[in-house]
Amino acid sequence: SLVVSDDDVWRDQFYNGNIEKERGAVVLRLAKSWFRIGSLEILAHSGELDLQRRLLDFIIQEHFPSIPVNDSNRYLEFFSTVVSETANLLALWMSVGFAHGVCNTDNFSLLSITIDYGPFGFMDSYDPNFVPNTSDDERRYKIGNQANVGQFNLSKLLQALKPLLDPRQKQLASQVLEGYGEHYYSRFTELFKAKLGLLGENENDNYLIAFLLKVSLLC
Fold first, then answer.
1. Degrees, nearest 5: CA angle 136-140-115
2. How far is 41 from 34, CA to CA, in rounded Å?
3. H or E stretch including 27?
4. Which of 46, 48, 182, 197 is the most interior residue, by most CB within 10 Å?
């Protein structure tokens, strides 16, 4: 919901130095959780490991019921779940042409839900360079780079979790992260095959999907 105020505020809408007064407003956003990768990053960066552990245990208990809170591998299981679910989420974004706009770690949910999509947009026609965020001059968050940015953010999550993992768990977590690309591509392919009505497995399915996307780009 949007609550508009009668008070004026100074805004630089396009971040180009042209500051103007406009009516103030507050946007109310709802989600089942607002815990993000950045929520753990900031605690790890400041060395507040006890608080980080308490927060992580709370998140697991509240939102990951399949992971026993007293399991010594709970943080590894948590990371593995977030990696696979993030891959699923990014594939879903791509399947409908959704560009988030600002895919930094503070805007990526630990529950792998879509939050904080301020300058988002949907492609009218296929274009991997599509950027809805006018302030993203370097096209870091262009739609065709979202999957890569997702993996980058997960690497930052792993970095934040490492102080809580033993050497064996760190090695396994790194292997989990390495599998992100394969998981994403598998889900991406599955979604696009469903769009095309392709049944079963055929070695030419992936070629057909890539060919149709290329044709769409040329149209």
1. 80
2. 14
3. strand 20-27
4. 48
Domain boundaries defined on the chain: 32-217
**Active site positions, annotated:** 106
Across-strand partners of 121? 99
pTM for the model stands at: 0.89
Q: Work out whether the CA dihedral 195, 199, 204, 206 comes out positive or negative.
A: positive
Residues 113-146: pLDDT tens digits? 999 887 899 998 889 999 999 889 899 999 999 9
CA–CA distance, 98 with 18 (Å, rounded to integer): 29
Q: In the chain, how long is the greatest CA-to-CA distance?
A: 61
C-alpha 174/C-alpha 73 separation (Å) is 14
pLDDT in tens, 167-189: 999 999 999 999 999 999 999 99
What single-letter amino acid sits at 146? Q
Based on its alpha-carbon atoms, the radius of gyration of the chain, rounded to whole angstroms, reads: 20
Query: How far apart (Å, rounded) are the C-alpha atoms in residues 192 and 22?
Result: 43
